[in-house]
Amino acid sequence: MVNAVNHVTLGGRIVSDVELRQTNKKKIDVCDFRVVNSNRRLPNRLFIDVEVWGKEARRTAEKTRRGDYVVLVGELRRDVWEAKENGEKRSKIKVTANRVILSSDKKELDDSGTVSEGGSQFSF
User: Fold this and answer.
1) Rg, Å, the chain Cα set
2) Could you tell me whether strands 29-37 and 19-22 are parallel, antiparallel, or unpaired per DSSP bridges?
3) Which of 17-26, 39-48, 69-78, 109-118 has the lowest mean pLDDT?
4) What does DSSP assign to residue 18?
5) Which domains does the chain have, with CATH numbers?
6) Residue 75 CA to chain centroid, in angstroms?
7) Which residues is 95 bridged to in the sheet?
8) Strands across the sheet with 120-123, in order?
9) In terms of Cα–Cα distance, which of 20, 8, 22, 9 is closest to 71?
10) pLDDT at 109
11) How far is CA 51 from the centre of its chain?
């Protein structure tokens, strides 16, 4: 059996408050926020929930805020739960980011995973 590749790199503007919390038992930092990705190839905006864990969570919470443009590197996760109102199963896809790169302004992300900024480039 072949293992599936689950890797995502995307850029977007933070559209929610960046919230830092800790897990109950082990007191691990977790940062949650939402970004909007407006890709020219997509007809609509794509809103994505993001979570960041550990030291990167604390750094992200300290350095970012609503309105900032970030590049996320991580993987897709599916959360599943039961609705309190009626017990129906619900789910949503979100990004668990291993790395959050704060950008001073919007950069273009090409198909190879390289970010271009006025002639200079850096890769993930």
Assistant:
1) 16
2) antiparallel
3) 109-118
4) -
5) 8-104 (2.40.50.140)
6) 9
7) 50, 76
8) 108-109, 114-117, 120-123
9) 9
10) 45
11) 6
Q: List the structure tokens of 10.
A: 């995307």
- Indicate the residue type of 41: R
**In the block, which residue shows the tokens 């480039």?**
121
Beta strands in 1-124 (DSSP E): 8-14, 19-22, 29-37, 46-53, 69-82, 89-103, 108-109, 114-117, 120-123
What's the pLDDT tens digit per position in 27-82? 999 999 999 987 666 677 889 999 999 999 999 999 999 999 999 999 999 999 99
Return the structure tokens found at 3.
């293992």
pLDDT mean over 8-25: 93
- Chain-centre distance for alpha carbon 63: 15
User: What does the alpha-carbon distance between residue 83 and residue 87 come to, in Å, rounded to a whole number?
Assistant: 5
Which is nearest to 14 in space by CA: 39, 32, 40, 30? 32
